[in-house]
Specification:
By secondary structure, the protein is an all-alpha fold. It is built from 3 helices and no strands. It has a domain of about 35 residues.
Length: about 55
């Protein structure tokens, strides 16, 4: 799981999870939670997150 988060957190940046400060980590997790809460199922959430990664 940490490896996936490291890859995701590094999009557009060269930071790993270990280098994120508490505010950045909290903001990132809130964004993920907002996406998950706004989706009907896991497939929709995955599609939305993949679309964000491709930007």
């Amino acid at each position: 799981m940490r490896e996936l988060l490291n890859k995701t957190a590094g999009v557009g940046k060269e930071k790993g999870m270990e280098e994120m400060n508490s505010f950045e980590l909290e903001t990132f997790l809130k964004m993920v939670l907002e996406i998950l809460n706004g989706c009907k199922d896991l497939q929709e959430a995955q599609t939305k997150i993949k679309a964000l990664l491709e930007r």
